[in-house]
From TrEMBL:
The gene is lysA. Specifically catalyzes the decarboxylation of meso-diaminopimelate (meso-DAP) to L-lysine. It comes from Adhaeribacter aerolatus. It holds the Pfam family Orn_DAP_Arg_deC. This is Diaminopimelate decarboxylase. InterPro entries: Ala_racemase/Decarboxylase_C, DAP_deCOOHase_LysA, De-COase2_C, De-COase2_N, De-COase2_pyr-phos_BS, Orn/DAP/Arg_de-COase, PLP-binding_barrel. Substrate binds at R278, R314, Y318, E344, Y372. The active site is at C343 (proton donor). Its EC number is 4.1.1.20.
């Protein structure tokens, strides 16, 4: 019961076990105390340098999670009209909401304009033209930032790298002259800054130094043309420790922000923004599942869970590692392929993992699932949506 003992809180453990008996598996279990501690560390580390952090809703948009994040004073980084709607509903003020994304629809842009959000992070000339026209129709001036592709390798999985010229994201440097000429003609747009995001689950902090160098060079491009940018948004991407979630439950926000403080050439009066998702919420969530069956294959044993790729897609989509723990059985370890019930061979959480000899009905925790877990769930095979259970000052289901 590794995870639960770490809570070091006997009454809560008892409550939790009671709730486990009642909750149908699989379900997501969120530790709101850990989330609070994480948010506090991130907020305090950023505050030292007056950095502003927007939370990337795409990582997890559950009500108690968003409420807490909003209460801690983070802004909202949204990538769809529905995320903007959700952020507003959860109390984020429009002045702290940004709308990013490479393919914003007219309806989504109109909605965000109606609500006077802080800024649109724009990714193409055509998008600028559309926002200009739609803002004009509403009699408004839209604040925009240009998402520039810095061509920096994030050194992460190729599926979650975004800052290379071959990626679909952002405006490339060679397009910038044309984009600036276009902006001159867009009467309903106000350019307030530039935006970068190079990828996700970045664990080598040197990558952020490279990002800073590129951002400094790109800033010079604007300065040399006499263009002042009040806002500088360097995106998100800070990784978490999927291998040792108990040893490192909170990412090193201190070092992360210190790098930007040291290496970014912030212009006088310029506000620096970050868009963190994973590092704020990943460790607070686990997917709790029950073992349905244990069976012997030709070369390996299978532990067949009642959770699958419909609840947590990351291992199947990115070959991502999530630590798996048997919370019920103890004793000598046996090697398993831990798989789900979905009718796909790829529905496998992990191959060749050692777990205590596993029995039908054992509880299993798949750790570090608070980010890009529930939000990427699907109904494939007509599956029910897994519930969320929250541990915090009180235990409750939502
Ligand atoms: N800003 C932009 C423009 C982004 O595209 C993203 C994530 C973020 C901020 C937040 O990045 P974070 O701090 O969470 O790394 N589903 C994948 C991750 C996709 C990330 C997409 N963009 C996964 O499960 O690993």
């Amino acid at each position: 019961m590794g995870y639960l003992q770490k809570q070091n809180n006997p009454p809560m453990l008892k409550d939790l076990q009671e709730s486990w008996q009642q909750e149908p598996t699989p379900f997501y279990l969120y530790d709101l105390d850990l989330l609070r501690q994480t948010l506090e560390k991130a907020r305090n580390a950023a505050a030292q340098y007056n950095f502003q952090v927007h939370y990337a809703l795409k990582a997890n948009s559950n009500k108690p999670v968003l409420r807490l994040i909003q209460e801690f004073g983070f802004g909202a980084d949204c990538v769809s009209g529905n995320e903007v709607k959700r952020a507003l509903k959860r109390g984020f003020v429009p002045e702290h909401i940004v709308f990013a994304g490479v393919g914003k629809s007219d309806a989504e842009i109109n909605f965000a304009l109606q609500h006077n959000i802080f800024c649109f992070n724009c990714e193409s000339s055509q998008e600028l033209e559309v926002i200009d026209a739609l803002a004009g129709k509403q009699g408004k001036v839209a604040r925009v930032a240009l998402r520039i592709n810095p061509n920096v390798d994030a050194n992460t999985h190729k599926y979650i790298t975004t800052g290379l010229e071959e990626n679909k994201f952002g405006i490339n440097m060679w397009e910038l002259e044309g984009v600036m000429a276009l902006l001159q003609q867009c009467e309903n747009l106000e350019l307030i800054g530039i935006h970068f995001h190079i990828g996700s689950q970045i664990t080598d902090l040197n990558v952020f130094k490279n990002l800073c160098s590129r951002v400094n060079e790109i800033q010079q491009w604007f300065i040399s043309r006499g263009i002042q940018l009040p806002h500088l948004n360097v995106g998100g991407g800070l990784g978490v420790d999927y291998y040792q979630p108990d040893e490192n439950p909170i990412s090193d926000f201190e070092s992360y922000f210190a790098i930007f403080n040291e290496h970014l050439e912030v212009q006088p009066g310029q506000q620096v923004h970050f868009e963190l998702g994973r590092a704020l919420v990943a460790q607070s969530g686990s997917l709790i599942s029950r073992v349905l069956y244990v069976k012997k294959g030709l070369t390996t044993n299978f532990a067949i869970l009642d959770a699958g790729m419909t609840e947590l897609l990351r291992p199947m989509l990115y070959q991502a590692y999530h630590k798996i723990e048997n919370l019920t059985s103890q004793g000598p370890e046996v090697k398993y392929n831990v798989v789900g019930p979905i009718c796909e061979s790829t529905d496998c959480f992990a191959k060749d993992v050692f777990l205590p000899e596993t029995q039908r009905n054992d509880f299993v925790a798949i750790r570090t699932a608070g980010a890009y877990g529930e939000v990427m769930a699907s109904e494939y095979n007509l599956r029910d949506k897994a519930k969320a259970v929250y541990l915090g000052l009180e235990v409750k289901s939502v």
